Amino acid sequence: MFQLPETTEARLTSVTNRVERHGDDEHPAVSLGISIDAANTVLDRIDPHIREALYKPVDRQDSLPGVEPSTPVLRCNSFDKHTLTTSHEGWTLEVDEGIDESTPLVFGGCKIDKFVVEAKQGGSIVLRFRVSTSDVDADRLGKLAMHIGQAIWIRLSGPDPNAEAIDGSTEAFAADYPDATDLFARAHDTGHDEGGPIEDEPPSATEETSRPRTRTARGREATRKALEAGMAEYLSSTQGA
């Protein structure tokens, strides 16, 4: 899994503005061309077999116990570049405009693909790849565009494998939103009076309509906001009727 958790010097080779369609909506997006010069060992982060396919150790190289032999020698000098099929989604890109920048530009929901390896004799490589995201705004796009062809410092990280996973059952939803049923009941005047039976009550807002799934804290917050927005819209329409 390709990641760059440490701050890495890179070159921003291109910034391409485009539009992404999310359902019926169009959102601004950007594709970034990034190039890094690195030791061939960085290939192990993509696939541990790539380096041994392109490189080999020095002939008659002495090996040390517990130490992997270096691989500086190209197996074949007849290739120019190697295109990889590797692709990751959901990555986070952090961009420092300078080595001493304290607040990086952060882009979430990134797709990393279009990997190209230029293998060099001696064990160094040029690794090029594309980063695409719709997590952009005019300010960050403008800052990126000012650095085309220049050095930047980046970090790439995948999704947090320890992210909180929440039970998506009816019981869990009811625990998260204990007042959801009451809100809808009052709005529809379903007879939530003291001591009185409830007749023809509409389906509970917590009724499951799909198979169980996990929800994150961000998902719970989004659902809460949607409930509030829907309630406000309903009350507004009934008052204006």
What's the topology here?
Elements: E1 4-22, E2 25-39, H1 48-54, E3 55-56, E4 73-74, E5 82-83, E6 88-96, E7 105-119, E8 124-133, H2 138-145, E9 151-157, H3 170-176, H4 180-187, H5 217-240
Antiparallel strand pairs: 1-2, 1-9, 2-8, 3-4, 5-7, 6-7, 6-9, 7-8
Helix pairs in contact: 4-5
Explain the overall architecture:
22% of the residues lie in helices and 34% in strands. Residues 204-214 have low confidence and may be disordered. With 241 residues, it is α+β, with helices and mostly antiparallel strands. The longest helix has 24 residues, at 217-240. The strands form 2 sheets. Strands 1-2-8-7-6-9 form a 6-stranded antiparallel β-barrel. Strands 3-4 form a two-stranded antiparallel sheet.
Relevant terms:
241 residues, alpha+beta, single chain, six-stranded antiparallel beta barrel, 22% helix, two-stranded antiparallel sheet, 5 helices
Low-confidence stretches: 204-214
Helix count, per DSSP? 5
Strand order of the largest sheet: 1-2-8-7-6-9
Please estimate the helix content: 10-25%
Q: Characterize the largest beta sheet: strand count, sense, and whether it forms a barrel.
A: 6 strands, antiparallel, barrel
The number of distinct β-strands equals 9
Average of pLDDT: 80
**Spatial shape:** elongated
Please identify the structural class as seen in this structure: alpha+beta
Rg from alpha-carbon coordinates: 27 Å
Please give the alpha-carbon distance between the first and last residues: 57 Å
Strand content: 25-35%
**Topology as a string of helices (H) and strands (E):** EEHEEEEEEHEHHH
